Amino acid sequence: MTDTKFDEVMGALIDYAYSQSSFNEDTLGMARFCLMDSIGCAIAASEDRDCMKLLGSAQLSKNDQGVPVIGTSIQLGPIEASFHIGSMVRWLEFNDTWLAQEWGHPSDNLGAILAAAAWQNLQRDDVNPINMADVLNMIVRAYEIHGILCLENCFNALGIDHVVLVKIASTIAASKLLNLPKEQALSALSNAVIDGHPLRTYRHAPNAGTRKSWAAGDATARGIQLALFAQTGEMGYPTALTTKRWGFNDAVLRGNALTLPRDLSDFVIRNILFKVPNPAEYHAQTAVEAAIRLRERIEAVGSSIAQIEYIRVETTRPAIQIIDKSGTLNNSADRDHCLQYMIAVALCTGDLTINDFHEPMASDPQIHSLRDKINCIERISFTESYYDPEKRAIPNALHLKCTGMAEEISEVIEYPLGHVRRRNDCFPALIKKFRKNVSGSSVNVKSDELVDIMTTATKLDDMSIIDFLHLFSIRNI
């Protein structure tokens, strides 16, 4: 190990992850809900044919002594297990979200957290096992690292995908859970920093595709791999961020410095954005809710969806950049990132479900007709409230007019159901979402019992990570 001091930001991240400070019950309660929601998303993905087809190609480490993979009956080595779990959590575009200068999904890191914790227990032969209290603590820290790095570091403007931050947070989380000394954790982190980082190509037309469903799993797996390398004594790169020309700040951020704009605590998990009740890209959540309300109003006055003449959508600049699409939508990944498609489905059906991104809905002529009637524009005040740290709104306004209406009708919603400002309504909806996500699976434990375990500290926190994962081990891929 070199005597050169590691860059300040890397040191601060590792110091926070290794801190012995504890979190209060409100924060840990949020971590339990985040865990429950993510597990539910993974279980639902285990019923998705395309997801299981891809994961079936990545099982070279299959054995009887590996990490139990959620939604299956298989056990894998830690790297492949992380890829599986991380991909399943993310696959259906239904896990939690964080929005700032950079966008992301902190629960993407669950693949690395669960796999690293389980692998460490297996290596210890269950002596002094990592329990779920340790996992919850690391969930809070991984969310915080990921989310605070999103606040002022904008990768999307450079064409770089946000899973760069999954790789960073997952590497740190895996290092801590694998009980690496700080020096080795810094080595692992520096290697994550200097890795090549994926482009956003697969998130945008004309190339939007399913890689966006497994990109996070890939990043979590790399995080564990780098932690395992460091555990052998593999060297680190102390000025990986700041070295001139060749460092991350110059080569990736084009001369800007990676920053931590606020102290690391529990801010992110306390303000996390849940996706309830619809699996819509987060900038579309309030638009879908508004469309469902407008459908009810249209029916109440005796009009029909077929009579809609036009739909005008006022939204945020990020929504315009990410999900404002026209023309052919080539696959489900394209559709779940199309604002017009999601609004059209919500108007036609009064809902938006996972299945709606596939056939036969994808070919419904009424959906195509409605898409052509939708015009999206940025409302500057919406973009301002989106970036306002005191509001963090995700607003949308829908205005439409039907044949025979004297004037247009409108719905404006600033905060989605999963926002911190609507928490009282959010928690019951999250439980309902979880039950629905596991209802079609072969999980041996009933959903009511699972909810009770995952929301009750005295039942969850002392459980070993291996016992927890076995609750969800169900079927062969």
Describe this entry's structure for a reader.
- The protein has 477 residues and is an alpha+beta fold.
- The protein has helices at 8-17, 25-45, 49-55, 78-91, 110-123, 132-152, 163-177, 182-193, 211-231, 248-251, 267-270, 285-300, 317-323, 332-335, 339-349, 365-372, 380-387, 423-439, 447-455, 457-460, 465-470; strands at 67-68, 75-76, 98-99, 103-104, 308-315, 374-378, 396-402, 409-413.
- It has a four-stranded mixed beta sheet. Strands 1-2 form a two-stranded antiparallel sheet.
- The radius of gyration is 22 Å and the shape is globular.
- It starts with 7 loop residues before the first helix and ends in a 7-residue tail after the last helix.
- The mean pLDDT is 95.
Instruction: Please give the number of β-strands.
Output: 8
Radius of gyration: 22 Å
Number of domains: 2
Low-pLDDT runs of 5+ residues are: none
Alpha-beta classification:
alpha+beta
CATH fold type of the largest domain:
2-methylcitrate dehydratase PrpD
Number of helices: 21
The proportion of residues in beta strands is 5-15%
Q: CATH class of the largest domain, anyone?
A: Mainly Alpha
Please give the largest β-sheet: 4 strands, mixed
Mean pLDDT: 95
Q: Helical proportion? A: 40-55%
What is the N-to-C succession of helices and strands? Answer: HHHEEHEEHHHHHHHHEHHHHEHEEHHHH
Distance between the termini: 43 Å
Q: Per CATH, which architecture of the largest domain?
A: Orthogonal Bundle
Net shape: globular
Biggest sheet strand line-up: 6-5-7-8
Give the CATH superfamily of the largest domain: 2-methylcitrate dehydratase PrpD
